[in-house]
Amino acid sequence: MKISIMRPVLVLIILIVATLAWSGNGLSQYFPPAIPAGPPAEGYTILNEYYLPALMEEPERCFHRARENFIKKELKIAAEDIRKATVYLRLEAGRSTDEGKEILLDSIRELDELAAKIEKGSAPSVKELDKVFSRAHQSLAKQHYLKAVKIKTDKGLRMIGQDLKAMAYHLERAIIWDSDIIDTPVKTIIEKARLVAEQLANKKATNTKAVNDILNSTGKEIGKLEHKKEK
User: Measured between alpha carbons, how far is 199 from 92 in angstroms, rounded to an integer?
Assistant: First the structure.
């Protein structure tokens, strides 16, 4: 039997379940049986990766709402919007490589600090919000890149395609939020990553050469972005 659920309702249900599970209410038992047994690490929840692509754009929606509410001086609501965005980052951290997890945890801490400042009325400016949101997207892009590198095998090509698609999305969002990091090579990487991801999804890519090429190029460009971020 197929059950039709409106996408916003589906996203809301998943976020509520994920948040409750992460808070320790033991709801992980209701996730699909393919999930490995055993409790998650402290501060994380276990969620089947099948659900995550549907949530990819949720941080961006939260960031936009936070910005709008910040401008309208609805500071508590803006802070809550930012904290909602961190739910997705926590979910991604739970499936990251060790390096990716640390990168996302740093981003979560920065977002939490920003939310606290906004709540107290001490957030500096809209531009500072934009830069923090950009760095969050950069962190998510790096996480997907690292994950794609880790699963770079013929068996994992479909999953690599999903990570390449998500990586391209978050890189694009990052340069939209912060015009200071706009770079022609990054735009080219985004286009190529989407093309390879589409080929993998349609099973048109039968070898790993295209995947290797895009991952090598992406690694260099993300490294440049990180250098700019640290300045």
Answer: 24
Confirm if 165 and 194 have CB atoms less than 8 A apart.
Answer: yes
Q: Residue 151 domain-assigned?
A: yes
Give the separation between CA 226 and CA 178, rounded to whole angstroms.
Answer: 13
12 in a structural domain: no
| Side chain identity at residue 66, one-letter code | A
Taking only the tens place, the pLDDT of each residue in 162-205 is: 888 898 899 899 988 987 766 667 787 888 888 888 877 776 65
Q: Is pLDDT of 3 > 80?
A: no
Burial pattern 92-119, b for ≥16 Cβ within 10 A else e, equals bbbbbeeebbebbbebbeebeebbebbb
Residue 20 has pLDDT above 50, yes or no: no
Q: What is the pLDDT of residues 91-113, one digit of tens each?
A: 889 888 899 999 999 999 999 99
The range of the structural domain enclosing residue 188 comes to 57-230
Q: What is the rounded distance in angstroms from the CA atom of residue 98 to the CA atom of residue 100?
A: 5
Specify the number of domains making up the chain.
Answer: 1
- Cα 205 to Cα 197: distance, rounded to the nearest angstrom: 9
In a domain, 21, yes or no: no
Long-range contacts of 113-117 (CB under 8 A, 24+ apart): 114/82, 115/78, 115/79, 115/80, 115/82, 115/83, 116/79
